[in-house]
Write a structure and sequence with these properties.
Strand content: under 5%
Distance between the termini: 41 Å
Structural class: mainly alpha
Shape: elongated
Number of helices: 9
CATH superfamily of the domain at 67-206: Tetracycline Repressor, domain 2
Largest sheet: none
Helix content: over 70%
CATH architecture of the domain at 67-206: Orthogonal Bundle
Order of helices and strands: HHHHHHHHH
CATH topology of the domain at 67-206: Tetracycline Repressor, domain 2
Amino acid sequence: MSASLAPAESRHSPKRVAVLTAAGQLFMENGYAAVSMDAVARQAGVSKATLYAHFTSKEVLFAAVIGDRCTEMAEALELIAVHDQPLDQALQRLARHLLDFILSPHVMTMFRIALSEGLRFPDLARVYFEAGPLAGRNRVADWMEEERRRGRLRADADTRQAAEHFISMLRGTVLLRGALGIPPAPTEAELEASAAAAADVMRRAYGTA
């Protein structure tokens, strides 16, 4: 399920940005079930007709909030995930970027919402998974596919599976502790160490050198 935009609108149009900002804030503060489309329209300062012209349901809107954040991650990924560094350095940069993204307050809150309300709203869980974790996994896999094409990853590497392994190593207890709100938050040194360890495992498992 994807957000439906009027053809002339871009994802940076003022009304769309206002709606997504308002929806993201309301979802983070109140969860999914308690937020109405009326409340989003009021918070964004747009009419209900305008809101529904852009997003046909609350599920579509929630998917757009998640997808917009993942698009921001992808844009940053294009700058960070380069192909002109040694593989271990490139992997470590990518790993650290993913860790920062996973631990960001917005992403962590949306993860909690999907966990807490996904059983009552199965479509919400599916929307979250497809717009968030699955889309992120595919973007990492696309980068790995280019690395494979360049001969830096094994020719027989399954890049979708490799991306799954890579992201799973990074999530680990970091995501679980964050979602549960268990202090303390990881230090910069711990995040760097986690990124370096994941990069080393990936290089050994999938690298050609």
